[in-house]
């Protein structure tokens, strides 16, 4: 009889967006409990070894972290299995590099290089709005932050721009028709477009219709939509593809022109 949560993860059961090959081992790093869900995160070990290629193996990745060289959202992290997720900023002071973890149009995590100034802020989706003890208003965000006395305009489904050093809200981006958004779940994960319509379903999931820059329209559940700016101007820089998903033929023509 197993007792308590499992401490291991087989490679076969690892999320496909980690892009681990089947034959190079039996196990995968099981993410530690943290701000992002197990199936929606990337452990620091994979980030250093498989994506940035700063380590050849797990032992080297652990040595880098134990030397306190890696900061996630401004805090030094030493756990090789720490779960990094969407919109997190990764800072490496020794090489003076800053990255933001975003999705590419195929739904895989991509490390997007940003400036030091941009790495000081991040966008957080408001998941909950409530009042605590002594009627203190607070919001809870998608990355597990609790922000007290936040902007009263910030409602659930809106996005707030947070100053990482002070944990204060700098700006609010409303969940409104006409605002740019990125899809963070479902079949359209990683796509960027403008919200065109919101279907309300009492007792069910609201459906949001989105149109991208190439005028392709698609629909998804409201929980998958993450507003990233006002109008068609994104508040953070986007990866190379700019969230435009190409068809198989378009991709082939681009590669072979």
Structure description:
- This protein has helices spanning 44-51, 58-66, 248-255, and strands spanning 9-10, 27-28, 42-43, 70-72, 75-76, 83-84, 89-92, 97-103, 109-113, 121-131, 137-141, 146-148, 159-163, 168-173, 180-183, 192-199, 207-211, 217-221, 225-227, 229-230, 233-234.
- With 257 residues, it is mainly beta.
- Helix 1 (44-51) crosses helix 2.
- The termini are far apart.
- The mean pLDDT is 92.
Kindly name the structural category: mainly beta
What distance separates the N and C termini? Answer: 59 Å
Q: Count of helical segments?
A: 3
The mean pLDDT is: 92
Shape: globular
**Major sheet: arrangement of strands:** 5-4-7-8-9
* Portion in helices: under 10%
Number of strands: 21
Task: Spell out the helices and strands N to C.
Answer: EEEHHEEEEEEEEEEEEEEEEEEH
The major β-sheet equals: 5 strands, antiparallel
- The residue ranges in which pLDDT falls below 50 over 5 or more consecutive positions are none
* Relative strand content: 25-35%
